[in-house]
Amino acid sequence: MAFKALSHFSLLTSSFQFSYPPTGPKIRLKSPFHVSELLFKVSLSMDLLSTSSPFYQSGETDYSRRFSTVPHASSAVDSSQRHVVITGGNAGIGKATAMELARQGMAVTIACRNKEKGDEAAAEIVRNTNNPSIRVMICDLASLTSVRQFAKEYLDQGLPLNSLVNNAGVMACPQQYTEDGFEYQLGVNHLGHFLLTALLLDRLKTSATPGLKSRVVVLSSAAECIGNLDFNDLNFKGPRAYERWLAYGQSKLANCLFSHELSRRCVSFGIPVTSNCMHPGVVDTQLIRYVFPQGISSNKPALFPGIRSTIIKLLGLKTPEEGASTAVFLASAPEMEGVTGGYYEDSRRKSPSARAVDSRLAYELWRVSEELTGATEALEPLQLSVLASNVLS
């Protein structure tokens, strides 16, 4: 089946052509790919090569041991050191981001589901950067209880927070729901991060200094352009039929709108926190690997030698370090000081879809997200809850 599938792809000098079904018309895609073309090819590869694939490894759900520092890491708070929290900082883009920010001297807190994997990543970062200020704390974005517990324990540590990188996510998974009943991609990619940001916003505010604002970086995707928000059926429990890529697009559109609205509200109320979102490109990480069958994952023996490398070349995937470069830029670059409300790709400001910057849509998503996550108590003291809507409308 794999060889038959690959025979439908023909690598050309400046474009790709394939037919689906095999007897159908040739489709020619020019490089660079538009997101819809890319998603079609990824989905096609999966459908042709396998009938099922893993998509999100289960993490530790025992919240009794949530905070750790790797061996030789300092647990003392250095008031002169800038601090960053990175969700999903144990793998892929998140780990590459953590590695580079640690190399720059920042104190890094890796927020992830699996403590063992987090500790392994932290130890690697310490070895490679000689920066001992790497912490691991458990945060399962599919559980609002876990998000609240993480935020409480972080705040109780007395740590400052200068940058928050909302990196973790899932992509194109089968239909399922979070612990709180949310469609999984919307729950993990958007709602979990919405609550996390709300709970940490006051610390971000108080950690800012004159001439040095705190920063929120939201990883979105060019897939936001295929997203659509149906506020009557956000969780695909009503009339909308679940389609994994459209659900992913919805969550990525929500990321853009959240970043846009957070920026707008912080500017309106003089809160020294910037917010920017980004498209990292299509990156060779666990996120994309879980769309492929197990046999062509990089961490498993290939069932058919050469298949994975062929598909990687076909899709033009970036390395995690390349994908992380924009996140690092937004979280730490001096030239981004005070810059807010943008959408970035390859460390350059770009224009997302019109829906991604629709202020009315962004406001409505904020209102619904605040209600669904119960974030009002954290937002109200900062005048950022929907209770301040009359000022912003």
From TrEMBL:
Transmembrane segments: none annotated. InterPro entries: NAD(P)-bd_dom_sf (IPR036291), SDR_fam (IPR002347). Signal peptide: none annotated. It comes from the Eukaryota. Gene3D superfamilies: NAD(P)-binding Rossmann-like Domain. Keywords: Oxidoreductase. Pfam families: adh_short. PANTHER family: PHOSPHATIDYLINOSITOL-GLYCAN BIOSYNTHESIS CLASS F PROTEIN, PHOSPHATIDYLINOSITOL-GLYCAN BIOSYNTHESIS CLASS F PROTEIN-RELATED. This is Uncharacterized protein. It comes from Sphagnum troendelagicum.
